Structure formats: structure tokens, C-alpha cells
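Project outcomes to date are best conveyed with an example. Our students and postdoctoral researchers have been running inverse folding experiments weekly, and each run begins with a structure described purely in C-alpha cells. The record below, which covers 192 residues, was selected by the lab manager from last quarter's runs and is presented without edits.
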């Protein structure tokens, strides 16, 4: 009586979440266990009281009407359900956290969470057919071979001593001294 699921949704359970894809909006929503249970009960036959009781039986309580309305509002905001009644004023997430006095870990399980993201269009995923235009001229065969990896059969390089002469160093005279202009040449004499 309270709400109905939208037609055309793709639903899949993954771990502790329910993933719902809305093809008309191109969005995907992840529902935690509390939101997923309320979503499943949006069949036009369950009212808020029966949804609250189902949350308690599933160990997702203590549930209140405010918890159920929070789930219904989030599901309606994500356009996953159609509400058949006008929602009453109810506590929001922060007020429920204060009321429950639960830690963050417990609240993540107890309070309903619906997270929605936009999905890329099918054309961006490569799943749509593509059109290839044929060239107007015949392609010319390439004469260049593609490089291939060939294992090396040469040995690793080894150090070879250098055969070039070391540079010569010319001493610089100390300041105030005169450098010789030429070295003396000694000419040996042959016996006289």
C-alpha cells in the first residue's frame, strides 16, 4: 500500500548490498541491507508497520516508523520506487543517530543507505556497434618489419685498458720566478 518498485529496473545482489540499475536515468544505486529490505517490500501490499516489523525480524532494528520513512524517502529520491501515500514529517538521519545512540558501525547496518552514481552511457563502454569506413585507395604494403625482441648472444662488455696517452701536466712557475724558455740539450760527443 505504501509504495511500488519502478518497472524496468535491473536488480542484483552483491555481498551485503543490493545493486539497482535504472536504465531510464542511466544511474546505479547501491542499497545497504536495511534499504534493500524496504525496497523488496515495496510491492504495493506492505505498509510502514509491516516494513518496520520486517526490519526488526531481520535483526536490523530497533526499527521505527522514522527509519522506514527515511528508507522510503531515499528510495523515492533515487527514483527506484513510487510512493502511494504522502510521507509524513519524520526524523532525518542525524536525529535518528542521536535517538539510537549507536556507534557509526551499528548505524551503518541499522539505518538505510541508498547511494546513487551516474553510469557511463553504453557507447562509452564499447558495447555499442561501431562503424568502420573502408579506405578509398588500396593500402600499400609496408616494407618495414616490426621490431621483435631477440635474445642477445653477445657477451657482456669487458673493460679494456686505454691505449691513449695520459695528458701531460706542465708545471706552472711560482710567482716571482722565471720559467725556462727551453730545456738544455745535451749532445753526446764521440771520442776525439
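After processing, the design step wrote out the following sequence:
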Amino acid at each position: 500500500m505504501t509504495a511500488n518498485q519502478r518497472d524496468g529496473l535491473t536488480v542484483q545482489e552483491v555481498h551485503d548490498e543490493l545493486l539497482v540499475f535504472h536504465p531510464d536515468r542511466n544511474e546505479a544505486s547501491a542499497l545497504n541491507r536495511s534499504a534493500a529490505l524496504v525496497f523488496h517490500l515495496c510491492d504495493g501490499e506492505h505498509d510502514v508497520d509491516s516494513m518496520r516489523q520486517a526490519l526488526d525480524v531481520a535483526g536490523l532494528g530497533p526499527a521505527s516508523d522514522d527509519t522506514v520513512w527515511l528508507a522510503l524517502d531515499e528510495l523515492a529520491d533515487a527514483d527506484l520506487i513510487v510512493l502511494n501515500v504522502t510521507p509524513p514529517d519524520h526524523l532525518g538521519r542525524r536525529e535518528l543517530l542521536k535517538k539510537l545512540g549507536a556507534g557509526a558501525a551499528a548505524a551503518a547496518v541499522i539505518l538505510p543507505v541508498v547511494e546513487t552514481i551516474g553510469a557511463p552511457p553504453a557507447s562509452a563502454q564499447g558495447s555499442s556497434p561501431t562503424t568502420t569506413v573502408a579506405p578509398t585507395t588500396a593500402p600499400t604494403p609496408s616494407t618495414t618489419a616490426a621490431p621483435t625482441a631477440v635474445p642477445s648472444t653477445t657477451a657482456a662488455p669487458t673493460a679494456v685498458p686505454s691505449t691513449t696517452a695520459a695528458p701531460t701536466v706542465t708545471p706552472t712557475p711560482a710567482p716571482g720566478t722565471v720559467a725556462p724558455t727551453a730545456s738544455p740539450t745535451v749532445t753526446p760527443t764521440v771520442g776525439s
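The mean pLDDT is 73. The longest helix spans residues 65-77. The training component of this project remains on track.
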